[in-house]
Write a structure and sequence with these properties.
By secondary structure, the protein is an alpha+beta fold. The protein contains nine helices and twelve strands. Strand 1 and strand 2 form a beta hairpin. The longest helix is centred in the N-terminal third of the chain and has 17 residues, at 6-22.
Length: 257
């Protein structure tokens, strides 16, 4: 047997069992089959099964009790945050109040060309760049890289950003925030992001890029956010609108207040 394939097989078994646990197919409290039985079931060695179970134990998904067996643990992860698409800017402020933040980087830089264009910066204009990890119940769920035009970024300090929601700081600076455009996709965690979010390299992530604009169309903030999908999701309420024959799904307007 090619030993170089064992880690790949262990990864496959780990992902399979993790999915079955996450979906509820294997419920909390269930005793898993023994290592020899799992090895026979999946056509792999006991070493491969042991590696997969080690990873599940590291994730806090199973308990390995000497003399008793391996059991699926009750979930301890915080309830995922659900973002309301129809009232996004208000949601951002509320989320900032409900969650904690760990500031990883704070500096003034020449931004990437794509960021400069999105913010409609003047040639050579710098941005205040920050990297933050946001947490709920002490557990990381998002990795945020933000660029703010330097003239706005100078109105708050590194200490401010570590304790106050960025949107609050932007509005406190006098910058008017009126609208935002955003795009959502999926990506995989690189080494730095994986370490910050407590994931394995290559884990799937939700990726969001948001550009916040003022009334005159000038850029106020460029955000690239990476989210753990098990701790963050997006939600939008829809209703049917339009005349007969041209009806379509449209967002439900956010409630005032």
């Amino acid at each position: 047997m090619d030993a170089s394939l064992e880690p790949l097989k262990a990864r496959r078994i780990y992902l399979l069992l993790r999915e079955r646990i996450a979906s509820g197919e294997i419920s909390p409290g269930t005793r898993l089959s023994s290592e020899p039985a799992l090895a026979l079931q999946h056509g792999v060695s006991r070493v491969t099964i042991r590696r997969a179970l080690d990873s599940l134990a590291t994730d806090g998904l199973i308990d390995r009790r000497v003399g008793a067996g391996t059991f699926v643990r009750e979930p301890e992860a915080p309830r995922p945050i659900v973002a309301d698409f129809s009232n996004m800017l208000t949601h951002l402020v509320e989320m900032g109040r409900r969650t904690g933040v760990r500031l990883l980087a704070f500096s003034y830089v020449q931004p990437p060309e794509a960021v400069a264009q999105a913010l409609a910066l003047d040639p050579g204009e710098r941005t205040q760049r920050s990297v933050r990890v946001r947490l709920i119940d002490g557990q990381p769920f998002s990795y945020l890289t933000t660029h703010v035009p330097e003239r706005i970024g100078l109105t708050y300090s590194e200490a401010d950003l570590a304790t106050v929601p960025l949107l609050t700081l932007l509005e406190r600076s006098g910058a008017l925030v009126e609208r935002a455009s955003q795009a959502i996709s999926a990506t995989l965690a690189g080494p730095d992001v994986a370490e910050a979010l407590g994931l394995e390299i290559g884990s799937p992530l939700l990726s969001l890029t948001r550009v916040v604009l003022g009334p005159d169309g000038s850029g106020v903030e460029h955000l690239h956010a990476l989210y753990r999908p098990d701790r963050y999701s997006f939600q939008m309420e829809l209703h049917r609108a339009g005349e007969a024959g041209e009806r379509r799904w449209s967002p439900v307007p956010a409630q005032a207040g």
